[in-house]
Amino acid sequence: MKTLNIGLIGTGFMGKAHAIALKAAPTVFSLPAFPVCELLAEVNDELAAHKATELGFTRSTGDWRALVEDPKVDVVDICAPNFLHKEMALAAIAAGKHVYAEKPLALSAADAAAMVEAAESSGVKTLVGFNYIRNSATQLAREIIASGEIGELVHFRGRHNEDYLSDPTSPLDWHTCRATAGAGALGDLGSHILNMAEFLTGQHIVEVFGQLQTVTARRPLPGNSGGFGEVENDDHAQALLRFDGGLIGNIETSRIATGRKMGLAYTVTGTRGSLVFDQERMSELQLYTSEGPEGRRGFRTLLVGPEHPDYAAFSPAAGHGLGYNDQKIIEIRDLVEGIVSGKPLYPDFHAAWRVNRMIDAIEASHVEGHWTRV
Ligand code: NAD
Fold first, then answer.
1. Is the CB of 79 within 6 Å of ligand 1?
2. What is the count of structural domains for the chain?
3. Where is the GFO/IDH/MocA-like oxidoreductase domain (predicted)?
4. Which domain-ending residue is among 97, 131, 165?
């Protein structure tokens, strides 16, 4: 069988999720090539060797540039913090490697544009990890919308709220620093719901009116020094949206939404029905259709099952549910098929650049106090 050798950079939250998915994908799906966990890079040789053993990679290195240039690596898989994505991706593209990168693609739209240009002129394949669009329930929502079952779309409401920084005594880390993260909640979580809005509706967001706020301006420095430092980006943000197909909508996003653990949710309203989804109940989709007598209408809960996109590969039994890591397994299937069979990959660097443009436009709108074109 054909193989695809993966070089993974970074083994934190996302690096582990990618490793799990790389190992599981050939068991779940019938793939056109076998993804091989070939080489792993971390910040030093010792950590890299330890993580390679733990996550099942053949070789390791403490130098990500050696990974990018390694002749056996076909795909560079970037799971490092945001500020490293551009440098790593440009080096990988220059070495002729396909690139699978985590979101947000870059710290700014200008950086993302440089990455798009490099990828498109070299012809390598790219994929960005906006994994929530691959959940079976959300793929089903997209199918229902595209089929016209809920009529013409009139409104999109999206949110992605979590509470990982709701405790004001949680220390600063790379997420709170402009130079390492870019935008705050807006870049980290808002990026997912902005991509989701375009994925579900099939329309592009063309104009935004944004508002951002940093609620906890200072946090303890990491370690036990007792010192404090500035939080340099937003804790929460919201924006009004205009889409190119005439739809209007809004998003909100927060990393201080006390109690909300995985609050990616949307309501899509159409002229003949509506859809409601909440990632904390990720195997359910609420569907309302304007059918039957008025007194018998209501939202129905569709539990995902083998009839729905990609579910049957995991289980023959309806309602048993998928999990977060399963979305990544589906993403790996798409990555392998895109590279080997030439299927278009979405979201590639170009689609992810759009998200960076939306983030920049929401920030600019907040500063200037008016509607801003994406
Ligand atoms: P993390 O801090 O948990 O892990 C980052 C890893 O990168 C660490 O293991 C760190 O040692 C390593 N690293 C840092 N600098 C490096 C270097 N120079 N060379 C090699 N390794 C290096 O971060 P995370 O939460 O895994 O986030 C990583 C990326 O994944 C970010 O871009 C983030 O936005 C994204 N992310 C995506 C999702 C999703 O659902 N798609 C969820 C969380 C994070």
1. yes
2. 2
3. 139-276
4. 131
Residue in 362, 358, 168 with CA at minimum distance from that of residue 255: 168
Helix axes 13-28, 45-55, angle to 10 degrees: 30
Lateral strand order in the sheet of 248-254: 300-303, 284-289, 273-278, 263-270, 153-161, 248-254, 236-243, 205-213, 372-373
* Digit-coded pLDDT (tens) for 215-239: 999 999 999 899 999 999 999 999 9
Does the predicted model carry a pTM greater than 0.90?
yes
Give the residue numbers spanning the domain of 106: 3-131
For atom 17 of ligand 1, which residue has the closest CA? 43
Cβ of residue 86 lying under 6 Å from some atom of ligand 1: no
Residue bearing the CA closest to ligand 1, atom 14: 80
The CATH number that applies at residue 110 is: 3.40.50.720
Residues 143 and 116 reside in one and the same domain:
no
Whether 184 lines ligand 1, by a CB cut-off of 6 Å, is: no
The CATH number of the domain holding residue 188 is 3.30.360.10
C-beta 161 within 6 A of ligand 1: no
Using the atom order of ligand 1, give the atom closest to the CA of residue 131: 41
Question: Distance (Å, rounded) from C-alpha 219 to C-alpha 227?
Answer: 9
Pocket flag, ligand 1, residue 17 (CB < 6 Å)? no
Measured between alpha carbons, how far is 298 from 30 in angstroms, rounded to an integer?
39
Q: Would 333 be classed as within a structural domain?
A: no
Q: Is ligand 1 within 6 A of the CB of residue 4?
A: no
Is the CB of 162 inside a 6 Å radius of any atom of ligand 1?
no
Residue 373 within any structural domain of the chain: no
